[in-house]
């Protein structure tokens, strides 16, 4: 599971940014930056909220980590 890729894919597919995600999940933009860079893995409860933000099931969000976005 590569949440860094999942988040990057979500941003690309949904045309969203870190600040919008931070506001939605109730975290600071710096925390989202750590999630997006792979420095910190979010807890499952946050992964679920991130999937909601991108409008997909949690399983779909996790599967996005298998894709390569350039």
Layout of strands and helices, then pairs:
Blueprint: H1 3-14, H2 18-25, H3 29-37, H4 44-54, H5 58-63
Helix pairs in contact: 2-3
State the main characteristics.
single chain; 70 residues; mainly alpha; 434 Repressor (Amino-terminal Domain); 5 helices; 66% helix; 0% strand; globular
Describe this structure in words.
The chain has helices spanning 3-14, 18-25, 29-37, 44-54, 58-63. With 70 residues, it is an all-alpha fold. It is globular and about 25 Å long. The model has no long low-confidence stretch (mean pLDDT 93).
H/E element sequence = HHHHH
Shape descriptor: globular
Fourth CATH level, the homologous superfamily = lambda repressor-like DNA-binding domains
- Taking all Cα atoms into account, the compactness measure Rg is 10 Å
Output mean pLDDT: 93
Count of helical stretches: 5
**CATH architecture grouping:** Orthogonal Bundle
Termini separation: 19 Å
Structural class: mainly alpha
Largest sheet: none
Give the CATH class.
Answer: Mainly Alpha
Q: Assembly state here?
A: single chain
How many extended strands? 0
Number of domains: 1
**Helix proportion of residues, in percent?**
55-70%
Q: Strand-residue fraction?
A: under 5%
The CATH topology is given as 434 Repressor (Amino-terminal Domain)
What's a concise summary of this model?
The chain has helices spanning 3-14, 18-25, 29-37, 44-54, 58-63. The chain is mostly helical and 70 residues long.
